[in-house]
């Protein structure tokens, strides 16, 4: 164990749902009653950019109203205690940052940013408002949400794999481990690195060797964090 224990946390929609953010659920293929093919694919953007922009502008307003919950706050508090905490999230909201976490990697992008349609390196913070048709980057191209749509590559995946390989403990929170390539992150941990999944359905979702903690993020994460803070390490034995 490193002198400053390195906790890598992989979070999914379950942690944001407890803050009231409605999320995509693969079971019905809908996101806020919209087929994902109509609002979260490159084809949808080409076919009807206004509908896509309207959809994300509404999601953005929802996220701005949401607040970090106990799970977000507990992870930030652990970092403040001197633990090395790296968060990899599938979520496009900023709740981890607003809770105080400083090292957050957004695998699927950030809804509170816009980016150029022709140069993905050109990103712009959306401190208020949304993106409209006619809003353009410095190269004159239409701005789009800075999110990874279905069918697009995940540019930060390699960086996430590197983080996972450095973990002293991998904590997975609120994800079904069903969306690729993110679900394959667990294969990048060292064979002897402990891993736990916090989710109300953890028993059904946990791969072999992963400790299942059947509870919500808001209950399970603070309980783990309090234990680690008292012990000064990331052990569960």
Automatic annotation (TrEMBL):
GO terms for cellular component: cytoplasm. Its EC number is 2.3.1.286. It is found in: Cytoplasm. One of its GO terms (molecular function) is protein-malonyllysine demalonylase activity. It comes from the Bacteria. Substrate binds at residues 56, 59. NAD(+) binds at residues 90-93, 174-176, 217. The active site is at 108 (proton acceptor). It catalyses: N(6)-succinyl-L-lysyl-[protein] + NAD(+) + H2O = 2''-O-succinyl-ADP-D-ribose + nicotinamide + L-lysyl-[protein]; N(6)-acetyl-L-lysyl-[protein] + NAD(+) + H2O = 2''-O-acetyl-ADP-D-ribose + nicotinamide + L-lysyl-[protein]. Gene3D superfamilies: SIR2/SIRT2 'Small Domain (3.30.1600.10), TPP-binding domain (3.40.50.1220). Keywords: Cytoplasm, NAD, Transferase. Residues 1-231 form the Deacetylase sirtuin-type domain. It is an enzyme of class 2 (transferase). Belongs to the sirtuin family. Class III subfamily. NAD-dependent lysine deacetylase and desuccinylase that specifically removes acetyl and succinyl groups on target proteins. Modulates the activities of several proteins which are inactive in their acylated form. 2 residues (Tyr-56 and Arg-59) present in a large hydrophobic pocket are probably involved in substrate specificity. They are important for desuccinylation activity, but dispensable for deacetylation activity. This is NAD-dependent protein deacylase.
């Amino acid at each position: 164990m490193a002198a400053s224990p390195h906790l890598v946390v992989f979070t999914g929609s379950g942690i944001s749902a407890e803050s009231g953010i409605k999320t995509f659920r693969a079971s019905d293929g809908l996101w806020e009653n919209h087929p994902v093919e109509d609002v979260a694919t490159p084809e949808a953007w080409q076919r009807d950019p206004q509908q896509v922009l309207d959809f994300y502008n509404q999601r953005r307003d929802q996220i701005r109203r949401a607040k970090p919950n106990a799970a977000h706050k507990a992870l930030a508090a652990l970092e403040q205690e001197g633990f090395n905490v790296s968060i990899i999230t599938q979520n496009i909201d900023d709740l981890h940052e607003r809770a105080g976490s400083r090292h957050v990697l957004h695998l699927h992008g950030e809804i509170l940013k816009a980016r150029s349609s022709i140069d993905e390196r050109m990103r712009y913070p959306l401190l208020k408002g949304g993106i409209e048709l006619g809003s353009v980057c410095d190269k004159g191209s239409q701005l789009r949400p800075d999110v990874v749509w279905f069918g697009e590559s995940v540019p930060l995946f390699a960086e996430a794999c590197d983080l996972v390989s450095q973990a002293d403990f991998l904590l997975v929170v609120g994800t079904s481990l069903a969306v690729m390539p993110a679900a394959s992150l667990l294969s990048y941990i060292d064979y002897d690195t402990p891993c736990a999944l916090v989710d109300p359905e953890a028993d059904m979702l946990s791969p072999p060797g992963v400790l299942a903690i059947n509870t919500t993020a808001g209950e399970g994460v603070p309980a783990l964090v309090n234990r680690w803070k008292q012990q000064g390490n990331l052990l569960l034995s």
